Hints:
This protein is 24% helix and 30% strand. The chain has helices at residues 3-19, 22-32, 38-52, 70-74, 121-124, 129-135, 176-181, 185-188; strands at residues 91-93, 98-105, 110-114, 117-120, 139-144, 152-154, 159-167, 191-198, 201-208, 216-218, 222-225, 233-237, 246-247, 252-256, 261-266, 271-273, 282-283, 288-292. The protein is of the alpha+beta class. The termini are far apart.
Amino acid sequence: MNNRESSWGARLFVGLQHVLPQHLLSLLMYRLARIEWAPLKNLMIRAYVRLVGVDLRAAAQPELTAYPHLNAFFTRALRPDARPLDPDPRAVLSPVDGTISQIGSITDGRIIQAKGIDYSVRDLLGGQQEANHVFDGGRFATIYLSPRDYHRIHMPLAGELAEMTYVGGRLFSVNQVTAALVPGLFARNERVLCLFGTDLGPVAVVLVGAIFVGGIETVWEGEVTPALPGLRSRRWQYTGSTARVRLDRGEELGRFNLGSTVILLFPADTLTWAPSLVPGQPVRLGQRIGTYN
């Protein structure tokens, strides 16, 4: 296939996403993935493993029929020894298994989405002006989770939860093709923003939804999406709460259904990215991606 044909195919793929009922399709997938009738759920799990090439060697439960439904397999646990954490206490860890989509500095309050495309931190965080100032001049990393990846999200460093915000939006695919053709993709999609107080100052972990991602969960609130119909945003405050949420580095934060994207935001002058990290590079949970300054 030549570049022109590839370009037309990509534009058609993205154009279809604009007209498809994204939320309805994702809701149908949400329900399908929770069917517990053994013949059907076993068939779906086996087909999924073959289709996307899931590696089961690291799974805590490698027996496919042991999962009660497809979603339980999507969010399967890993063996305790499968993802050792970098032992350096100054290391900032990858929170997921995935692929670096973009990584770098936040300049003039903007983040690189793809070649020639950027978007604002303020839009990503749902228009919170204060947060935009906190992260301006800081660092960001965008990590894409494919359907074959482990779908739980863990802490890149220890922190105490300050607030969580749900921001409603579209459910475009978040793969490389769509990121290159949909301006402001991550600030347009449905997302859950988790803001932590850490030794580096405020750190944001943004969980971005996508088509067929039928739910985003956190360990402290459970299922956050799918949200109530018509809900555009909701904010939870935890500072001063009796139900404090403090998580150690490497501890589970939440989980996706299917694949999606995690965006990390750090304040200025707090960490240095590992020089080997470039767009397109795979990373694993617990791997060092940066170091405290």
